[in-house]
Amino acid sequence: MSQIDLFSSEQDSRPSKLGHANIAYKTVGTILNITSGFMADYDYSLNPYSGCAFGCTYCYAAFFARDNEQKDTWGYWVNVKENALLLLKKFRSKPITGKTVYMSSVTDPYQPIERKIELTRDIVKELLNYHQPRLVVQTRSPLVTRDIDLFRRFNAVQINMTITTDSEKVRKVFEPMCPGNRSRLDAIKEVNGAGIDSCITMTPLLPIEDAHVFAKSLLETGISKFIIQPFHAERGKFTAGTRNEAKKLFNEFNWTKERYMEVENIIRQYIPDIGIGKEGFKPI
Ligand code: SF4
């Protein structure tokens, strides 16, 4: 069912809860936001949702939440921008062809609810058919493979999959509601195998069990573009949720600046040409 059908004729049956997350439907004023800060090299950021059901413990977007309640319940609420597609259609008269678009900066565009409502898919279709921007999609979800048929038809698109650790123990503490590491590696391998430019973003790189095995598993995807960014426990900010466990795990792994550098250097032995932080995130 398309977004339009869902939002016009079946509003009452729209889910208000999916798994652990409360879902709300909101009208917003704009869908293409002029970027600043870390994403300033892009023309626009595009967030089909606000909030995020993946609830990463370290998520910086949580700190931009509207109030303390939203901050403290990060991971347990998602707002669907129900007029997102209509807003984007308004740009048809002045297409954003060739502009750089980063989707998404403060949510994951492949939320669990996306499987049902296909909002991101409708947005990608609109961008494909009427705009052809230079699109970078950032996700932690294997659901991105669903839209391979659309990505294939872009003149310039790159899919970034975030993979932060080789340890399910670490993943479960820092990204408790995210898809597992293996499924993310398999998904980005599939996207890349379909001939779509792909990138693995280790942003941030969390404690690693075996840096050699991890680096090899990254290369086994067939991908040649990687970005890495540190997360230093001593400077890190955490949302509620598993905050205490996360801090404990950093200590257990002795995840200091020195240990991070050691791991990064091992990864570099396998992947010498690795993008770093903001520089690595430059538009395609
Ligand atoms: S997937 Fe991204 S937006 Fe969602 S909680 Fe994790 S870091 Fe934040």
Give the secondary structure arrangement, pairings included.
Elements: H1 3-9, E1 17-18, E2 21-26, E3 32-34, E4 44-46, E5 49-51, H2 68-72, E6 77-81, H3 84-89, E7 100-103, H4 114-117, H5 119-130, E8 134-139, H6 148-151, E9 157-162, H7 168-174, H8 181-193, E10 198-205, H9 211-219, E11 226-230, H10 243-252, H11 257-270, E12 275-276, H12 277-280
Parallel strand pairs: 2-6, 4-7, 7-8, 8-9, 9-10, 10-11, 11-12
Antiparallel strand pairs: 1-2, 3-4, 5-6
Helix pairs in contact: 9-11
The protein binds iron/sulfur cluster.
Iron/sulfur cluster is lined by residues 52, 54-56, 59, 61, 107-108, 140.
Question: Can you give keywords for this protein?
Answer:
single chain, about 280 residues, alpha/beta, pyruvate-formate lyase- activating enzyme, eight-stranded mixed sheet, four-stranded mixed sheet, 12 helices, globular, binds iron/sulfur cluster
Structural summary, described in words:
By secondary structure, the protein is an alpha/beta fold. It has a single domain (3-280), classed as Alpha-Beta Horseshoe (pyruvate-formate lyase- activating enzyme), CATH 3.80.30.10. It has helices at 3-9, 68-72, 84-89, 114-117, 119-130, 148-151, 168-174, 181-193, 211-219, 243-252, 257-270, 277-280, and strands at residues 17-18, 21-26, 32-34, 44-46, 49-51, 77-81, 100-103, 134-139, 157-162, 198-205, 226-230, 275-276. The strands form two sheets. The chain has an eight-stranded mixed sheet with strand order 3-4-7-8-9-10-11-12. It has a four-stranded mixed sheet with strand order 1-2-6-5, with no helix packed on it. Helix 9 (211-219) crosses helix 11. It is globular and about 50 Å long. The chain starts with a helix and ends with a helix.
